[in-house]
Structures are given as C-alpha cells and as structure tokens.
Write a structure and sequence with these properties.
single chain; alpha/beta
Length: about 140
C-alpha cells in the first residue's frame, strides 16, 4: 500500500494512481514488491527538525528515507521537503514535477538497496533515477 500525506504544505498535483503504479513497476524492475510506503510531504523547516532528530544532520535535505523493508518487500516512511524540491528544480533547470518524481523514486531506490554516499555510488543512483523517470514518461 502506498500512501501520500502532507504536513504544513499543499499536496502536489499528481496522478496518485499513475505514480503508485510507477513506484510498483520500478520496485519490480529491481526484483522487489511494495509493502507499506508512506510519503509525507513537508516544508524545509520540518525536514530540518527530522534531520536533527533522526539522522543527526543539521542541514536541509530534499528527502529522508526510513527503511522497514524485509526480504523482497520494500516498506518505509519517506519524508520529502517540497521547498527543497522546488529550489533544486530551479537550480538544475528542470521542471518541478520531474524533480518531484526524481525525489519520490530516489527513496524507493534506497529501499531496493541502491546507495549514493560511497565512491561511484552517486552515478549508479543517478542512472537508476534516470531509468525510472524514463519508465514514467514512456508509460
């Protein structure tokens, strides 16, 4: 089950069914099934509080992923700052919705086991994000 909620921000415009089906398709392409995924869209201040409280980071991020996956079933809570999504879209010169989709799937890719902190991992994550975005836009 995939759920989307907001706290302190408005729900972004998107086709929830299409996005949910896409998330399931991306998970399946990595030999995983979707369990319970809870997306929470927040503002920068809320994600900063969560970063400080749960990850000991004192800075803004676009996403925090809490992984509760077991076996081949991915589950987790994914917190996304819509403020940072908007500023990153502007910074990188991409449409807001495309950047939002990139961040939505970034959390899923973490849940399937792709990391982005070590040497060479960022490139692997970017390639997986781009492949997932192609699935969305070519559906």
């Amino acid at each position: 089950m995939i759920e989307f909620a907001v706290q302190g921000v408005e729900m972004p415009e998107m086709d929830i069914r299409k996005v949910s089906a896409w998330i399931e398709e991306v998970a399946a392409s990595h030999s995983r099934r979707v369990g319970n995924l809870n997306y929470l869209f927040v503002d920068d201040e809320e994600i900063l509080v969560a970063n400080r409280q749960f990850v000991n980071h004192d800075y803004y991020t676009d996403i925090i992923t809490f992984d509760y996956s077991r076996g081949d079933r991915i589950s987790g809570d994914i917190m996304i700052s819509l403020d940072t999504v908007a500023s990153n879209a502007e910074k990188f010169g991409v449409p807001y919705f495309r950047e939002l989709l990139r961040v939505i799937i970034h959390g899923v890719l973490h849940l399937v086991g792709i990391n982005d902190k070590g040497p060479g991992e960022r490139e692997i994550m970017e390639a997986a994000e781009n492949a997932a975005l192609e699935l969305y836009y070519n559906a």
